[in-house]
Design goal:
Low-confidence stretches: 1-17, 467-503
Radius of gyration: 29 Å
Order of helices and strands: HHHHHHHHHEHEHHHEHEHEHHEEEE
Largest sheet: 9 strands, mixed
Strand order of the largest sheet: 3-2-4-5-1-6-7-8-9
Shape: elongated
Number of helices: 17
């Protein structure tokens, strides 16, 4: 049995037999009242059409009648006893709907549609409860089947529950006054900061000037080719947000384990080369540096999760709990293409990625926090020549154009030095530099931001944060020298004088 799909209005739910001595959830009297109100008041349908679908009704007769009312609305025809009866006759379903006398009787059961929305919400809740019972019963039956693959069954269960839950995310319209107040409050908050930031600061000054910080309900895509430093950029921001500003945030790492992720964070914060952290071959002063700076990470509101092949359903469940229990204000995901929409059927991977990106945008709106998702780019960049040719474009987003459509902002990470391009068209030195290209900004301007990239520390910095000057020959990647033999008679782990200690 495929997962329950609430969007298919053609799917008819039938009265289920008693389950373990209990009738399924239903409210037939309210169904009669709602149908009756729809037959006597012209505008009643528009108050419930976003709440109810034909399958929301328990009684099959009411499903057919409501389907006829829907069809009349699509045809821009009036909806009353006579037109509905005529429509049912043309559909060949008048007898299935109980006949003309039953329809007339329904119209006489109510005097007005005063409480139709309240009644419709109860009917919709009963329908959701029936969908859960039907779906979980199917999963239970399959769980008893020893031939079933449990992992696949778990994914099917997640996907089905996700589909059922999605239909309950609808929000009603609101009068503009409270929205104006909310917008005004945001404006005052930005003004009070002095720096014009209304969202969460990334810690990169020029980037924050363009974005005004990461905004609530936004989906931000951070995309790059492999080896450009996507994870390093994300961790640098995580350090700026959770460690420096102490803003609670969550980091979902689908590519590496928690310990690997934290090791990279230690490299970033303590400024000790990654290979040394991995091998443990630290000089005495580096041990002191590690002990001193690692304290900056302890107790900070950074929550990490390394669930492999995370599904959108799992992410939503965990994200809700993180926001509720820990007040998380921002979520990062590394990276989007490693996620899946388990339990759902797709014709291609492109369709699945489209579903994932739409779900991430929906989650950002639901939780009212920014979600930053890392993404891979396709190989189109590699085939282009020249400084401009190597710059990523929106068309380079991998596997789905829906990512570009769903995102409120798309940022590319570009390091010309990686392609052996060391100067720009103005002759400026590009060694050790990275460009953050804001290619899409739904609520603002686009542009480029230059940052300093320190590969050996997996770290991005504001250019003004230090006086780093690339040495001659810096075109080659800087690697760890921990395994290089020291010159004769030289201490392999020299301890500098106190005034030269790098922390």
């Amino acid at each position: 049995m495929p997962p329950y799909n609430s969007s298919k209005s053609s799917r008819r739910s039938k009265p289920a037999p008693e389950t373990e001595g209990r009738l399924q959830p239903q409210a037939v009297d309210l169904e009669k009242a709602v149908i009756g109100a729809l037959l006597i008041e012209r505008d009643a349908y528009f108050r419930v059409n976003e709440i109810l679908q034909p399958q929301s009704f328990y009684d099959p007769r009411h499903q057919i009648i409501y389907e006829a009312i829907q069809s009349l609305n699509i045809e821009n025809q009036p909806m009353d006893i006579l037109t509905v009866t005529d429509k049912l006759e043309r559909m060949g379903k008048i007898e299935e709907a109980g006949g003309a006398p039953y329809i007339t009787a329904l119209s006489g059961m109510v005097l007005s549609s005063a409480h139709i929305e309240y009644h419709a919400n109860i009917i919709a809740q009963k329908a959701t409860a029936r969908a859960l019972i039907t779906y979980t019963s199917d999963i239970e039956e399959k769980a008893f089947d020893v031939t079933q693959d449990i992992d696949k069954l778990m994914q099917e269960a997640e996907g089905g529950l996700f589909e059922i839950s999605q239909k309950n995310l609808k929000k009603d319209y609101t009068q503009i006054d409270p929205v104006i107040k909310e917008a005004y409050d945001m404006l005052q908050k930005a003004a009070s900061h002095g720096d014009g930031l209304s969202g969460i600061a990334s810690g990169f000054h020029e980037l924050d000037k363009i974005t005004s910080g990461w905004q609530n309900s936004d989906l931000v895509i951070l995309a790059a080719r492999p080896a450009m430093g996507k994870t390093a950029f994300a961790l640098s921001m995580a350090k700026n947000i959770a460690v420096d500003q102490q803003i609670p945030m969550a980091f979902f790492s689908l590519e590496m384990a928690n310990v690997q992720l934290v090791n990279r964070m230690i490299v970033n914060v303590c400024e000790i080369e990654g290979e040394k952290i991995k091998s443990g071959q630290l000089a005495p002063y580096e041990w002191g540096q590690l002990d001193y700076k690692v304290k900056d990470l302890i107790g900070k509101p950074l929550f990490v999760d390394d669930t492999p092949s995370l599904s959108v359903f799992e992410l939503r469940t965990k994200a809700r709990r993180l926001v509720r229990e820990h007040g998380v204000k921002l979520i990062m995901i590394d990276y989007l293409q490693l996620m899946n929409a388990s339990g759902m059927q797709f014709g291609s991977r492109q369709e699945e990625v489209s579903k994932i990106s739409r779900s991430l945008k929906g989650l950002a709106k639901e939780l009212n926090i920014p979600i930053l998702a890392l993404s891979q780019l396709n190989r189109g960049v590699e085939g282009r020549e020249g400084l401009e040719g190597k710059r990523p474009q929106l068309s380079d987003l991998r596997e789905s154009g829906a990512i570009e459509q769903d995102a409120d902002m798309v940022l590319f990470i570009h390091r010309p030095e990686y392609y052996h391009l060391y100067t720009d068209e103005k002759g400026r030195d590009l060694r050790g530099m990275a460009e953050i290209i804001i290619a899409k900004h739904r609520n603002g301007s686009v542009g480029d931001v230059r940052l300093r990239f320190k590969g050996k520390f997996a770290r991005f910095e504001n250019p003004e944060d230090d006086n780093y000057i690339p040495a001659a020959g810096a075109e080659e990647a800087i690697g760890s020298k921990i395994n290089a033999a020291p010159p004769a008679n030289e201490d392999p782990f020299p301890v500098p004088p106190p005034e030269e200690m790098p922390f």
